[in-house]
Amino acid sequence: MFPGAHGRDVYAWVIKPSFFAPDQKYPLAYLIHDGPHESWNRAWSVRRNLALLAEQGYIVVAPNIAGSTGYGQVFADATRYSYAGAPYTDLERCIEYVEEHLRYIYMSRAVALGLGSYGGYLVDWLQGHELGRRFRSLVSDNGIFSLMTHLSAPVRHPIFHELRGAPWDNPDEWKRWNPASPEYLGNWRTPQLIIPGERNRLVPISEARAAYNALRGRGIECSLLVLKGEGGSEGTEPEDVVLWYRAVLDWMERFTKG
């Protein structure tokens, strides 16, 4: 537990590998969940398996940041009118807490993974802000890149509720929290892996391609893995799950264990 935005207590999972030794140091896998109204909990997930990631030699830290469910309605509503505000503050303060208290973590060997539309959105948000420089690399899984082009999705996203209406109703909010705004794109510097599902109806594949092109345009090391026939971030085909893990783990190892 650590003090988060607006003085609220924020909880985080810390998962260690089975071979953990307190006198050793391990790289950090920093996980950001989807939602924003979801949470890390004792639930099984094929592609969001914290223990599996930890067993590759990482300390996994998975905070339930502002907007997470399970901590009351006020906490869950903290993303409304502040879509990346309070969550970003919580992510910052969690890293500060980890750096101060978890001395068995190599803070210089950290990677952040955003899973699902909102988790991936926050990774793109980190890219344009100071916290993004704390990581050797980033992973965005089915994330939202541009709030404006996201309007092309055939399914209406809950973001309309979070931002108090459509862009023409509240243009300032849509501009303020858009990772693709030019003022933020100019700050992108961290290598990033992007993995979209080709048939994701909530987050069209154009979001991933646009983020990938932005990274390439800025000369930033990046990789794009398109999962053919897949929808959301959970995956349905066993071979796609294996492909996802191989790509993610290879990317993580390349930047944290070299």
Automatic annotation (TrEMBL):
Record-level GO BP terms: proteolysis
The protein, known as: Dipeptidyl-peptidase V
Gene Ontology molecular function, alphabetical: serine-type endopeptidase activity
Domain Peptidase S9 prolyl oligopeptidase catalytic: 44-256
Family as reported in the entry's similarity comment: Belongs to the peptidase S9C family.
Positions in coiled-coil regions: none
PANTHER family: DIPEPTIDYL-PEPTIDASE 5, SERINE PEPTIDASE S9 FAMILY MEMBER
Organism whose genome encodes this protein: Aspergillus calidoustus
Keywords of the record: Hydrolase, Signal
InterPro entries per UniProt: AB_hydrolase_fold (IPR029058), Peptidase_S9_cat (IPR001375)
